[in-house]
Amino acid sequence: MTTRRRFLRSSAFGVAAMATAKEPADSGAVSQKANENQMDNRLRAGIAQEIITPKLGGILIGYGSDKGSTAVNDDLTVTALAIENGKTKIVLMSVTVCLINNGLMQNLRALCGEAAGVPASHVIISATHTHSGPDVMDCEDPEYCNDIFIPKCVSAAKASVKEMKPVTVGLATTESRVGINRRQLLPDDRVILGHNSWEPYDSQMTVISFKGEDDKSFANIIHCTAHPTAAGTITEITRDWPGIMVDCLEKVSGAKTMFVNGMQGDVAPRISSGRSDGGRPGNIRFAYEIGSLAALDAVRAYRDIREFRNEELSVATGMIRIPHAPLIPLEEARKELASLEAGRQVRFTWAAIRVMKINIELHEKGQTEESFFTYNQTLVKLGPIVLIPVPFEASCEIGMRLRDYSKYGYTLALGCTNGYNSYLPTRDQIPRGGYEVDRFQWSGERQLVDNADFYLISENLKLMEDFSKK
């Protein structure tokens, strides 16, 4: 608690005392109103969890494997944390699946918001990005989506607000070597998925913890950054390394715990094989290898929390706009399309063909003016903590820059959250190419400008200014 806040609280108590001395007849009413206001401004929270493990036999989303799941190493979960302060209430949800497409996400936020009694904009749903789970991105298994995934998410959101109770919140950060940059540069100047020891990775792990009035831990959030791909191409269903970390902190703290991933677009788990994943075939032991290290870091941060306090909760909503790249000239686009259709090989030929066809169609319709990719954004501020949902698999540097530029002490970007729109690299990564750059350039209907990272950061910083006005 800052000195200024303490002073303001002391002053408020002094004013109430003077009013009581001057008007003794109204002392009961004043005291009751003061107590009601105090209760309204108390931080309250509720947490609930549901199992969302699919039936065996379904295709797992990672690495394009065509083999169905054969076993469950650990159950997949959805965890919903409802937080309320005064008139503001949000529901933060962590879902242990890889990706959730924009259409399904929009529907899911609306359903969960309705169940929890909050606007859809106040529901934040983050996919942890495990590759050893069902394909929710394209809803390849409608039975799973309709009978398990959606109902269980809605159930968790509804249950999270049922028994909310007063809490205080504390946090701590620690250095973690769970991740490593995965854009490995080869001597022939190619970029592959591997380990790159000199490029950036986000080493900050943050643990946020809530305590009840009984001084016991009630709920935890772990935020750190790395792909949950340590197990590699396996046929076992698993949350991958974050599952081991979450289970450990739950056991140590006695509180339900959720994991929210950071900007992990170019960050691999730092497994001893030196790969960005456990390989083909995969090996579950790599998930335990990294999960055990992550668990030690999370417990260390949790035990380092020194102060819990009541904090104010607020939300800022607005529109994020990122310019599309200018259209390729019509004749150039036609030549490129002919070349692609004739068999020219690029990593995502089918996607490149689609983009070229859209490019030509827009020219033919005369729609060549400047255009933007837009999405609705919701920022959440809890005391010095700001959560920034990002519906991309973005490079870690973007999250680090957001944290560095922000005036709030703990600014946490959440990747693969509130939707998914492919990769988003930094501008300096684009000339070297590689998997992340290829996906960025060819996965959308329209290419974004090369400096989309700048626009994502600046637009969110502008929206963050709304917190100063409240």
Protein described:
The model is unreliable at 1-27 and 29-37 (pLDDT under 50). This protein has helices spanning 3-22, 27-40, 102-116, 142-160, 241-253, 285-303, 330-341, 349-364, 396-405, 435-442, 452-464; strands at 43-51, 71-72, 77-85, 88-95, 123-127, 165-175, 179-185, 191-196, 204-212, 217-224, 236-237, 256-261, 267-269, 313-323, 372-382, 385-389, 393-394, 410-414, 423-424. The protein folds into 2 domains: 43-313 and 377-421, no CATH class; 325-369, no CATH class. A hairpin with a 2-residue loop joins strand 3 (77-85) and strand 4 (88-95). It is of the alpha/beta class and 470 residues long. The strands form 5 sheets. An 8-stranded mixed beta sheet has the order 5-4-3-1-6-9-10-12. It contains 11 helices and 19 strands. Helix content is 34%, strand content 26%. The two termini are 19 Å apart. Helix 1 (3-22) packs antiparallel against helix 2 (27-40), helix 3 runs parallel beside helix 4 (142-160) and helix 9 (396-405) runs parallel beside helix 11. The radius of gyration is 24 Å and the shape is globular.
